[in-house]
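Letters spell out the chain; the tokens describe the backbone. To illustrate:

===
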Amino acid sequence: MITIGLTGFTDHPELLSKREGLAEYAQTFPVVEIDSSAYGVPLSTTVTRWLSQVPRGFRFIVKATQTMTRHHPASRSELIDEFARFDSAFTPMLISGQLQTILFQFPPMFAATPANVRYLAQIRTWLPEVPLAVEFRHTSWFTEAMRASTLEVLRDNELANMVVDEPQTPTNSVPFLPVRTAGDTLYVRLHGRNQAGWLRGERAQRTNYDYSDEELGQLAAAVAGKSDNTVFIFNNNAGHAAARNALRLRDMLNLEFDNLAPQQLDLF
């Protein structure tokens, strides 16, 4: 089964009217990546509201906070508290079966070191029952010498390898590596191929990219047969191309999604 979604459910003007937000988004796609959680643990009431706006079959990929992904220094006690609050906030989503995975997107400075390998194991200890996925952005994790060891660490700790399509740079990117390391799902996250913006690290430009039909076809072919379940998440939205590209891939693959919200007719 192949499913497709976007990062965020508001900033897609070609798809959404801005009136309905997540409820409107769920009329088109069966999965969404929540990226606002990277900046802080949401209130439990917010998570409950999200669940109330979508069908029971809808799924969420949720970003771990920047404290949890070591973007900011934190003591062990601060980390334990952050993990506990995050776990508590998303327990309703886990219970309902709608938590697809928690995404740990690590910063470019999170290199393949013994301390960071231990931290990956610690994550699984603090979140023992939750599906987890990892996205690296430091090249060291997937060098020829380190690649097999990295995949082994992910498998040993039941951490899904987030497959990424992104510009290739000397330090702050990793190769497209469609290998499943945990669970029954292969996750593919598409950042685009704007190398100039990626190198400059400009948030407003690094994901400004519009995939061609040829590129979308190549990506689909590259992961075909790698897993029974594949989830594509389009993050190439600095120029608002993500929704258009996601819909195009859906049509190219002749996909019809179940568990969508009913279309609302605007009678006024």
Q: What stands out?
A: The chain has eight helices and eight strands. The helical segments are 22-25, 44-52, 76-95, 114-126, 147-156, 195-200, 213-223, 242-252. The longest helix spans residues 76-95.
